[in-house]
Design goal:
Layout: H1 14-24, E1 33-35, E2 38-42, H2 64-70, E3 75-81, H3 85-102, E4 110-116, H4 120-133, E5 139-142, H5 144-152, H6 160-163, H7 178-184, H8 191-202, E6 215-227, H9 228-236, E7 264-268, E8 271-275, H10 307-323, H11 344-350, E9 355-357, H12 360-369, E10 375-380, E11 385-390, H13 395-409, E12 413-414, H14 428-432, E13 438-442, H15 446-449, E14 456-459, E15 476-485, H16 498-501, H17 504-523, H18 526-535, H19 543-547, H20 549-560, H21 565-579, E16 583-584, H22 592-608, H23 613-627
Parallel strand pairs: 3-4, 3-5, 9-12, 9-13, 15-16
Antiparallel strand pairs: 1-2, 5-15, 6-13, 6-14, 6-15, 7-8, 10-11
Helix pairs in contact: 1-20, 1-21, 3-18, 12-22, 13-22, 20-21, 22-23
């Protein structure tokens, strides 16, 4: 059941939605905002992480240097992260609670210090520098492809040695949502692990079991925000059927008198349809409806918008924006672009773009994964090493990239860096200003996308899906960072035998890993996850958290507050999306972070240039393949 900012076009009770929220977690798949070297669409722009000079981050209760000076047996850990504002406060609260329990533990005193970096670009750079200097932190929040880079330098601790040991393991590991478990074990860097991974699947495991090199902290996914007021008006032709963000009916809008019903003409693939926007017909009587995103049933993937749906909607929207006025501003829609927009004259003449996608790299990866043709990891029998193989030069995948180019050329689809000042990383500003009417972005950015004068709806993002073609499946990328343990290469593979038979340096190093594991266990526990799930706009990672009265009340409170309603609805939609099983994560490999980064400029290039899409993709494939090394 879809829920928009105003509870979609269906009337649904909060109680029913909360019940649905709980049931959705049974098979939740995982998926924060500015990240390393590219826009993944899920970190620093989020409302929970947005810049604010007035926001005051919680303070650490313990100074670990002072505590270590008082107690020579203290194990001090450094956790590097890129959390900001409320996300940093959540991390501080989790760390304060952990330190409260462990600083004064006589048998094993531990104190954790948080070190924040500006963003994930900076964090990634600083970690790599620290590896070279030999002063790496003990813990880091990171993305899987960053972990692959650190692992290539042999500094990532495989936490399997703790989880597989009954003495140290997370006893309620299965409470972590299944696909987060899957992502955590999705690291394969040698033949032995690859064989283990494949064998676990053959043995009927729920997922392949590789190395355990991270565990989830803050998770989100991509959803589509849409201008519900706009769609309510132009699918019915009745202002009384639409509501503004202040709760008033659209017929009470400042410029309601400028809503003058006018027939438009829309041509799709050579066939022309005429009439009012909500009653378009061809000469043979065939109808061309403007599809309302609020009619999507998120629990049923077959109802989601395909790219063909997006294209047809976009062609209709163009003609609406050429002929109708916004009842809120009183201006014609095709004049609401940002001054200086490179495509201003095109918008004035042809009408508005209708949809933008925040994370271009996510789009690139998702389209390829819809055909299972992005990348794979293989073992080379000749060299005895592992290697990654790229697959996105497949013709079916190239056809999807070509469809993106065609829709851009038609004025339907665009990306943030091709709108307005062409410097925005997100489509939020253009969406709020009604220069576009649908915007795909992170659930973590819901609050910002809900700040317009219209009602914002939330639903599933468009997917590659055609019932008559079976060689693909809908895919939505899962996002967010995880926590990983780092150690110097000489000590990264230590086992607990080091405690009894190791050198003093080995004993100290393993003891530090044990301390770091204790922090990982707490940060990803029910208590730690509850702090992130209720203190930020990220998703819960544990079934018990979603089922808890505290979390359900948290969602109910957000739904009851107009200022936070969109945030709660985005979380609900994300859980419903997860329940469909379409979320995915790629297996990381050395070089995958660079590949992701470079894909963003390639998409911008093939969208906005006249060069052949196939030639551009094939060259990118060749260039990136040549950079990959065996490992």
């Amino acid at each position: 059941m879809h829920i928009g900012y105003a509870f979609s076009r269906r009337k649904i009770s909060v109680k029913k939605n909360l019940l649905k929220l709980v049931t959705a977690v049974a098979v939740l798949s995982p998926v924060a905002f500015n990240l390393a070297s590219c826009n993944r669409g899920d970190s620093s722009q989020s409302a929970s992480d947005s810049s604010s000079s007035s926001y005051s981050v919680a303070e650490a209760k313990y100074n670990c240097a002072e505590e270590a000076a008082k107690n020579p047996n203290m194990t001090v850990l450094n956790f590097w992260h890129a959390f900001n504002n409320v996300n940093e406060t959540a991390a501080v609260n989790v760390t304060n609670a952990f330190n409260e329990q462990h600083v004064h533990d006589e048998s094993f005193p531990i104190c954790v210090t948080l070190t924040g970096q500006k963003d994930y670009d900076t964090l990634f750079t600083q970690i790599n520098s620290s590896i070279q200097s030999g002063s790496i932190p003990d813990l880091v929040s990171s993305y899987p492809d960053h972990v692959a880079n650190y692992r290539e330098q042999n500094v990532v601790v495989d936490m399997s040695k703790f989880q597989d040991d009954a003495e140290y393991s997370i006893k309620d590991f299965d409470d972590i949502l299944e696909s987060y478990q899957k992502e955590s074990y999705n690291y394969v860097f040698d033949k032995e692990t690859l064989d283990q991974y494949n064998q676990s699947i053959q043995d009927g495991a729920k997922y392949g079991k590789g190395s355990l090199m991270s565990l989830p902290i803050n998770k989100s996914t991509e959803v589509m925000y849409y201008n519900k007021t706009f769609f309510d008006i132009f699918t019915t032709g009745d202002l009384t059927k639409a509501t503004l963000s202040d709760g008033q009916s659209a017929d009470k809008a400042p410029y309601a008198n400028r809503f003058i019903k006018k027939e438009i003409k829309v041509t799709v693939d050579g066939k022309t349809y005429e009439g009012l926007p909500w009653d378009l017909k061809a000469a043979d009587g065939t109808k061309l409806p403007l599809k309302h995103p609020g009619d999507i049933d998120v629990t049923d993937v077959s109802t989601w918008f395909t790219w063909d749906d997006v294209r047809v909607n976009g062609l209709i929207i163009q003609q609406i924006t050429l002929n109708y006025y916004d009842v809120i501003s009183g201006k014609k829609y095709n004049t609401l672009y940002t001054p200086g927009d490179k495509y201003a004259s095109q918008i004035e003449q042809r009408g508005n773009f209708s949809i933008s996608w925040d994370s271009v790299s996510n789009l690139f990866i998702s389209l390829a994964n819809s055909y299972n043709k992005y990348s794979t990891i293989e073992y080379n029998d000749v060299s005895g090493k592992m290697n990654a193989k790229l697959l996105f030069n497949d013709q079916e995948v190239i056809n999807q990239y070509q469809k993106m180019r065609d829709m851009f050329n038609e004025g339907v689809f665009t990306i943030p860096t091709l709108m307005g000042s062409q410097t925005d990383k997100y489509g939020t500003t253009q969406f709020i200003n009604q220069n576009i009417f649908m915007s795909v972005g992170s659930t973590a950015g819901a609050a910002l996308n809900g700040k317009g004068s219209f009602v914002t709806g939330v639903t599933a993002a468009p997917v590659v899906f055609n019932k008559t073609e079976g060689n693909h499946s809908p895919k939505i990328i899962q996002q967010g960072t995880n926590i990983s343990m780092l150690a110097q290469a000489d000590y990264v593979n230590l086992t607990k035998d080091a405690l009894t038979s190791g050198t003093p340096a080995q004993q100290k190093a393993f003891k530090k890993q044990l301390a770091a594991w204790e922090y990982v266990k707490y940060a990803t526990s029910y208590e730690g996850n509850m702090e992130f799930a209720t203190g930020t706009n990220y998703l819960p990672t544990r079934t018990t958290v979603v089922n808890s009265e505290e979390y359900k009340q948290h969602i109910a409170n957000k739904l009851a507050n107009p200022a936070t309603k969109a945030e709660a609805q985005a979380m609900q939609i994300a859980l419903e999306i997860a329940n469909t099983g379409v979320l995915f994560t790629d297996r990381p490999f050395p070089g995958s972070a660079t590949l992701r980064t470079n894909s963003e400029s390639i998409v911008k290039d093939f969208l906005s240039s006249s060069s052949s899409v196939a030639a551009t993709i094939n060259k990118f494939y060749s260039d990136e393949s040549a950079k990959l090394k065996e490992f």
